[in-house]
Amino acid sequence: MLFNFSLTGFLVIIPVVLISLTIHELAHGLVADKFGDPTPRVTGRLTLNPIKHLDPMGAILLAIVGFGWAKPVMVNPYNFKKRSNLRKQMMYVALAGPISNILLAIITGILYVQLTSILGGFGQLATTFFTYLIMINVFLAAFNLLPIPPLDGSKILGAFLSENAYQKYMLIEDKGFLILMILVITNATQYIVRPIANIILDFVYFVASIGL
Fold first, then answer.
1. pLDDT over threshold 80, residue 63
2. Among 3, 25, 63, 148, which one carries the catalytic annotation?
3. What is the DSSP string of 145-206?
């Protein structure tokens, strides 16, 4: 278990998860919309309403172990304005999610450092909220960078594969959820995701400490 739940932790984990998942999926939708695909807008995903983005199982796992997902934003790359290299454009759509979580973690860290210097400290509830918001977003970004369909990492990797290699890689797409469940159940994700998360977390703390 990534988080040790207390009453304070219970009070903040739900809004933290909702905020983190919403920002992640909204970022996907905004980039796809910018590229010319109206699907996220038509399906109501260009919104800060967390209910539109929530996947119950993914949210529960995110709250408990730090690894999870939201309801994927539907994207049709054939609607993109530029029809060349659609996989590269899908890579940018995919990257938007983890990057948005990393940026949110950085902003949270900067706010915490700056407000602490001004106010001299926070109560337990506020401290837990800031800490969870940073940690959840870091682990959400790290988890989604795994190159396992349908996670964002699969689309990022797909942009660099040859057409033949890409078609072979996509053969595991319908088995992606099963692979993820096996990794989570066997706790293998701890050994795969944590090193990535630690690198991101070090970067977040570094930027927050210098106040960029």
1. no
2. 25
3. TSSSTTSHHHHHHHTTS-HHHHHHHGGGGGGHHHHHHHHHHTTHHHHHHHHHHHHHHHHHHH
